[in-house]
Structure formats: structure tokens, C-alpha cells
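Backbone-to-sequence.
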């Protein structure tokens, strides 16, 4: 197959049809880096305002590196997959003094920059002939070259990166490597779509081996009910319009984010009494697991001491109306929203509330985590109520 012709046609098609996106108006490697990280898992239309606000708030690598992680996560709030923001911040701190490397091979050594992002920065900002493969490019190349391995498998990825490298190597000298990479991504995003490729409009239609015929091969994703359940219990500690939030330690799931204090040891560490029944249950489907958070009201602690709270490095009361100004996880946002709709502070405290150290025993927690239930149940130990969507918060009335 004529790789040079593929490269030439992709670049020409990109020149004719390229969308006017704000990060395409710059060769600033930092701005491109930010855009590429934001675009992972997120649609272009969603990213645009976030990228613009981000670049206004953190216009340089140094500005990002010097910002507190709280500010960074707050600026990311709503985009999800917060590990991207943490990694971006870590990467900025690692290169703030020397600047971003210019070669893809060196960029891969920066925290949070993988082979795809390295290829994008190196080719677009620095003109290196560095190939890349993302989901869109994988689909185009799998169809053009008839790659029959699962495109997420090791063999499939190896084949796709090899083809991407061959096409990049065949790019005529006068053409820009960044235009080839962006052209392949654009082709996948706008023409070679997953379910209905528009082959008649495609510049590669006479070169493509499959023309979308049942490729690419992608291993089926697990359905929501097949994902492992992560069951958690959170404390709703409220007084005078403020709610207590705690910040997770930087590493691990939801690291650096603020949330209602969670975990078997949280109530004991804070020395608070907890109601026996939850006031709300939030359920959400994450990428690789289901999350269920039962929210229990708890008394106000004598002291807010994060050092005694396992897994957290800060704890503070926050006006409920301003809680979202911190970097909070989507689950916390959903719980706050439900609370603001109909505050459960108006629900009388139950007579069977009694002082105890933890909302439920660890044994009960394990049972909850392993016992399948209907998607939504306001009170987990009673009859289920109506089903919910994959991301929902319910409240005991
Ligand atoms: S010809 Fe069709 S299947 Fe092949 S790359 Fe173009 S749009 Fe995709």
C-alpha cells in the first residue's frame, strides 16, 4: 500500500476541513499538552471552555506548577477523570525549571505524558516525525490496513503503532508531521466514525482495505452490572449551613479531591455519633467499577483533625453553597445537588439514632459490597424502590 499517498491525502483533507479549535491557533507545547490531556475521554465541545479558562488561569507551565493542587482540581471540576489534572500538575512541577522537552522520547519521561501525548506535542509543537495512535487514529488505521487483532490488545496496538510509524515516515518532506497526526485524528472524529463511516467522502476510500467492513475489532466492554461494586459510607456533618468535607491524600482513587468523610474509621476518628439509617444513597458507574455511597448524618465533632482521619490530609467545614468551588468528585457534586433540591436536614432525626463509633460494622460493609442489589435503594436493608440510572442519588423521605 502506498503510505506516502495515504499521508498526502490525509494532510490535504485536513487542510480543507480542519475545525477551528482554539488550541490549533498556537504552537505553544504547554497549551497543546493541556488540550491533549483534556481531550482524553472528553468531547471537543466540552473541552473548549475548560481549555480557555485553564489557559487564562494557568497560562504557563510555571503558573501551573506554582498553583496549589486544590486550585488545579477546582479548575478541572466537571471534566471528570481527575487523575488527568493531578498528572498534568505533577508533570508541570517536574519540568517547570527546564521547560518541556522537545523530543517524543524525552516527553514520555514526563509524569502524565504517555506515548500518544508525547507524539502529539512533539509533532504539533516541534515538528518531529513522531507518530501517534489514539482511539480515532486506531479506528482509521485498523480499517485502512485491515488490522484484525483487537485494537486494544498488545498485538493490535503493536500493529497500529507500526502502521502509524510507516505512514509518518512516508510523509513528504514539505508536509508538517503535526498536520498528518491531526488529520488522522480529524478523519476518525468526523468521517471514519465507529458505526457509520462515510467512505464516499473519505480521502482514503480508494486506498482503504476494508472500507469499514466490520473493523476494527474491539473486545466488548463489561456491562454495568458486571463491574465490581465499590461500596462506601460517607458522613454528612452539617451545622449552620456548612458541611464538613475532607480531602483525600494525593495518591489513589479520587486523590486530592474533597468529599464527605468516608470509611469505617472516619466516625471513630472524628468521635461523632452516626444515625443508623442513611439519608441518601448515590450510585454511579465508573470506568471499571460501580460506586455506591450511602450517606449517614453524623454529629458535629469536637475538633476537625485530618491527621486522625485515615486516607485524608485535610478537613474543613465549607458553606454548602460554595462546596463546589473546591475540587470535588462527581459523586460529591451529585450528593450536594440532591441535598440542595430537598435538604435532608429537614428530616427529623430518627429516634433509633444512637451514639456509636461507625455507621456500620466492617462486616456489614463487606456484605454490602458483595451482595447484588437493585440499582437504587434509599435504605439498603429494606425493600428496593424504583430503579435508577447508572448515576443517581436518592434520598430517604
Ligand atoms: S474508506 Fe471508510 S473505513 Fe476506510 S478510512 Fe475512509 S471512512 Fe474509514
Amino acid at each position: 500500500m502506498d503510505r506516502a499517498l495515504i499521508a498526502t491525502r490525509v494532510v490535504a483533507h485536513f487542510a480543507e476541513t480542519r475545525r477551528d479549535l482554539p488550541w490549533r491557533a498556537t504552537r505553544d507545547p504547554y497549551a497543546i499538552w493541556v488540550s491533549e490531556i483534556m481531550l482524553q475521554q472528553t468531547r471537543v465541545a466540552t473541552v473548549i471552555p475548560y481549555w480557555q479558562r485553564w489557559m487564562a488561569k494557568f497560562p504557563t507551565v510555571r503558573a501551573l506548577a506554582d498553583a496549589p493542587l486544590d486550585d488545579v482540581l477546582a479548575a478541572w471540576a466537571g471534566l471528570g477523570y481527575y487523575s488527568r489534572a493531578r498528572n498534568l500538575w505533577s508533570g508541570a512541577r517536574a519540568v517547570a525549571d527546564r521547560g518541556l522537552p522537545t523530543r517524543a522520547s524525552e516527553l514520555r519521561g514526563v509524569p502524565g505524558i504517555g506515548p500518544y501525548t508525547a507524539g502529539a506535542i512533539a509533532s504539533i509543537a516541534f515538528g518531529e516525525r513522531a507518530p501517534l495512535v489514539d482511539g480515532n487514529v486506531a479506528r482509521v488505521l485498523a480499517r485502512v490496513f485491515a488490522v484484525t487483532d483487537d485494537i486494544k490488545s498488545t498485538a493490535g496496538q503493536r500493529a497500529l503503532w507500526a502502521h502509524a510509524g510507516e505512514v509518518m515516515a512516508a510523509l513528504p518532506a514539505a508536509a508538517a508531521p503535526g498536520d498528518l497526526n491531526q488529520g488522522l485524528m480529524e478523519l476518525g472524529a468526523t468521517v471514519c466514525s465507529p458505526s457509520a463511516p462515510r467512505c464516499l467522502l473519505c480521502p482514503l476510500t480508494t486506498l482503504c482495505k476494508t472500507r469499514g467492513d466490520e473493523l476494527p475489532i474491539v473486545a466488548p466492554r463489561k456491562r454495568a452490572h458486571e463491574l465490581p461494586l465499590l461500596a462506601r459510607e460517607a458522613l454528612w456533618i452539617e451545622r449552620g449551613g456548612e458541611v464538613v468535607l475532607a480531602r483525600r491524600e494525593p495518591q489513589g482513587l479520587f486523590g486530592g479531591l474533597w468529599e464527605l468523610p468516608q470509611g469505617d474509621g472516619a466516625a471513630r476518628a472524628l468521635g461523632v455519633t452516626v444515625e443508623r439509617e442513611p439519608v441518601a444513597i448515590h450510585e454511579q458507574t465508573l470506568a471499571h467499577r460501580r460506586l455506591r455511597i450511602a450517606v449517614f448524618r453524623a454529629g458535629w465533632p469536637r475538633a476537625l483533625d485530618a491527621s486522625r482521619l485515615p486516607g485524608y490530609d485535610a478537613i474543613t467545614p465549607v458553606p454548602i453553597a460554595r462546596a463546589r468551588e473546591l475540587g470535588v468528585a462527581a459523586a460529591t457534586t451529585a450528593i450536594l445537588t440532591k441535598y440542595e433540591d430537598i435538604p435532608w436536614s429537614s428530616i427529623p432525626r430518627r429516634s433509633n439514632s444512637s451514639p456509636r463509633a461507625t455507621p456500620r460494622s466492617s462486616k456489614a460493609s463487606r456484605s454490602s459490597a458483595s451482595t447484588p442489589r437493585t440499582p437504587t435503594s434509599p435504605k439498603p436493608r429494606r425493600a428496593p424502590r424504583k430503579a435508577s440510572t447508572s448515576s443517581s442519588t436518592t434520598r430517604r423521605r
